[in-house]
Amino acid sequence: MVSIEDYAPIVGKGEVESIKELAKHVEGAKVLHVNATKFGGGVAEILSRVVPLARSVGLNAEWEVIQGDRDFFWVTKKIHNALQGDETVSLDNDKIRIYLEANRRNAFIIPNDAEVVVIHDPQPLPLIENRRSGKWVWRCHIDTSNPNMGVWSRLRDYIRMYDAAIFSLEKYIPKDLAGMKVLIDYPTIDPLAAKNMPLTPTEIQKVLERYDIDPERPIVGQVARFDPWKNPTGVVDVYRKVKKNVEGLQLLMIGSFAHDDAEGEEWYNKTVKYSGGDKDIHILTNLDGVMDKEVNAFQRSFNAALQLSIREGFGLTVAEALWKGVPVVGTKAGGITLQVIDGVTGYLVNSIEDAAERVKLLLRRPWLARELGYAGRQHVKLNFLITKGLKNYLRMHIDLVGK
Ligand code: UDP
After folding, report:
1. Are residues 149 and 50 in the same domain?
2. pLDDT digit string (tens) for 225-267?
3. Which of 11, 28, 32, 345 has the most CB atoms around its CB within 10 Å?
4. pTM of the model
5. How many other CB atoms sit within 10 Å of the CB of residue 70?
6. What residue numbers bound the domain in which 377 lies?
7. Edge to edge, what strands does the sheet with 60-65 contain?
8. What's the gap in Å between 45 CA and the centre of ligand 1?
């Protein structure tokens, strides 16, 4: 069982004490989190760690997942894409009906006595129609800085029914939520999770050998769902450019299939096709047995991590790589810019060419990669660890229902 005391060696006793102090104000508060998947993607990752930790400091926190069929998750992925700016999506009445009816069928998961209900992302957003009690918060994890207005306007009235909305970056707050309580909260990673805890060199090597990856040759990689916004074909392009100068380079593309991501299979197939059978490109998923420990080992094996997203709400994978002392070459998309400080914790890039040049630089200069990686770990330690996330979480609960 997780205990807040376990974090003292990493963040200090003082930080742990201040968390315990804050928690006293909301002791026993009944909190329910609702999202659309138990597995895959950043929200499931966050909830799987935050909910047990919140319980360990005295909140009565629970996590429920809404159920839906293929049509529902197809519609909700379109809504996700539209909120990130895809102008080709439109929501006709049929799609809206699928969206609302599935939510109405899920209404039973909300207990009568929850004091705080936190709804994550657009999939369960309309559950607010069935509110019976408590304070309701909508936690948006995606980049809504430039949404498709046709779709946004159909969701806005639901959002406005909430007591508060939380976004990952200030620039994601849509202008037409004026008058609503809006908070900013950076997602965080758990240094004690199987995905982030220390591994021995032997453990890392065993994982590499299991997947036929040569530990003696350079490795770059991106960990991300197979999704157009993560730009998997761009990752292959960068690898091809770098490979012209770096013989023996290997590319790892690690992606899980989230249960609520209707496009995963299509984009996995596209990526495999695009890689053209290159034996040094390893495309691996949870279906190949890649779970938290394997992701951890792969990230630790990277000479440089890539995060070439076109849009990125936050990008936990960036914090995960930096925490492991691996510099990140990332695009100037959303949350990546909070984590990659150009020339300090990695490099921010504008193009495939730019990314390839930066990766080459890091491969030629291992000392530079080490310095940036070290700074990256410090940056995460100060700003993006779960203890900090828990403090913000407790403050929000104190604000809503504190004693
Ligand atoms: N992840 C994983 N296995 C994979 C790919 C991703 O466990 O094969 C995890 C990754 O380590 C991170 C989360 O899924 O914890 C992805 O979160 P992020 O915020 O980067 O992106 P999202 O999927 O939420 O858009």
Report:
1. yes
2. 999 999 999 999 999 999 999 999 999 999 998 888 889 999 9
3. 345
4. 0.96
5. 8
6. 201-383
7. 60-65, 30-35, 116-120, 135-139, 164-167, 182-184
8. 7
